[in-house]
User: Which sequence fits this backbone?
């Protein structure tokens, strides 16, 4: 008769099995195809005379022929904000910036960044799903427009805010759509 494995040995075997399963999942490709487009926007400058900035952005997906696959995705703008204070400014008061996307005239939830620390640098992202109307299926061209809105907020703090902002549009197929439609193209522009 063979002795039963010890509790420690069973736990170790279970641990190895779980780690192997996690490693397999971590290295498995997604269950759909994907493609992105990136736009590196020009630096935006905000100050007391020009405390707001707006940028129109357009995502266009084109296919050489109609396809049965539905195209889905998301849109994101990553903001990197630097405060350049005026000469002799105290660092007690800090500016902050409000950022949001507007889709089809409807403002989406704003995000706020307070520039803390020295030299007053921070990052912030605003994002939303792509919502093509009608759905982007059996169409040769799908398009969605956004407006990026930035507003300098806070008390009477001088200086300038420099905002760098790459934008990314990522589109993908529905679950289990492993092959990207031939010739599909994604463009992200400032019209």
Assistant:
């Amino acid at each position: 008769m063979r002795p039963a494995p010890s509790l420690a040995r069973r736990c170790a075997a279970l641990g190895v099995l779980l780690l192997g399963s996690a490693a397999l999942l971590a290295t498995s490709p997604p269950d759909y195809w994907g493609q992105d487009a990136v736009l590196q926007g020009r630096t935006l400058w905000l100050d007391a005379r020009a405390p707001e900035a707006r940028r129109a952005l357009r995502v266009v997906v084109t296919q050489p022929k109609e396809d049965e696959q539905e195209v889905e995705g998301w849109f994101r703008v990553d903001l990197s904000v630097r405060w350049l204070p005026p000469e002799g400014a105290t660092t007690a008061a800090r500016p902050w910036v409000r950022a949001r996307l507007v889709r089809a005239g409807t403002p989406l939830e704003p995000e706020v960044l307070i520039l803390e620390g020295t030299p007053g640098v921070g990052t912030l992202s605003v994002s939303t799903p792509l919502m093509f109307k009608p759905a982007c299926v059996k169409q040769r061209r799908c398009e969605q427009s956004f407006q990026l809105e930035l507003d300098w907020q806070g008390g009477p703090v001088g200086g300038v805010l420099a905002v760098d902002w790459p934008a990314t549009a990522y589109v993908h197929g529905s679950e289990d759509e492993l092959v990207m439609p031939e010739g599909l193209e994604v463009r992200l522009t400032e019209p």
Summary: The CA atoms of residues 47 and 160 lie 5 Å apart. The first strand starts at residue 34 and ends at 40. The mean pLDDT is 83.
